[in-house]
Specification:
Blueprint: H1 15-35, H2 41-48, H3 52-58, H4 62-87, H5 90-116, H6 123-146, H7 156-167, H8 175-190
Helix pairs in contact: 1-2, 1-4, 4-5, 4-6, 5-6, 5-8, 6-7
Amino acid sequence: MGAEGAESGGRKLRADGVRNRERLIEAAKAGFAELGPDVALDEIARRAGVGIGTLYRHFPTRDAIVEAVYRREVQQLAEGAERLLADLPPGQALHAWMRLFVDYVATKKVIAAALGAMVGGASELYATSGVAIIGAIGRLVAAAAAAGEIRADVEPDDLLRALIGFAYANSAPGWQASALRLIDILMDGMKPAAR
């Protein structure tokens, strides 16, 4: 069972508990984006339409809710690869996923300070998320190369480094639009040479 269906103590949540947890994560993400990483926990609970006690039942500390937001973003990015491959040709799925990656970076940027301030640091969290992201991009690259939609010599690690580079200046105005344009250019550059 995933973290979304269990309390911190390991017991299974009822349907209303799962809904409350999801609302809290959504409210936290929105609160971090609008008010910054120090948004009051009371404000997150208010935005989610629950009491502060419900927030603390699901997330006993600020670190716990920051971690939950980050883990969900990584999970959605990783699961997006399979969903996109099921719905689109492999090259288009890779292109769409790279655009999702920019959204992921935008969220990570908003909570980066809170992640960095977590007790014990976030290095383990980053390590496990890195594995999920590399796995997702690896599946997409393999599928697109096998379909002949990108060059056979494209390496997932190289592509991920390029994406991180595109998003590196994520504090500059207009960085997201620039990153999306660069993804389009990168996709054009990965097309196999015409025969």
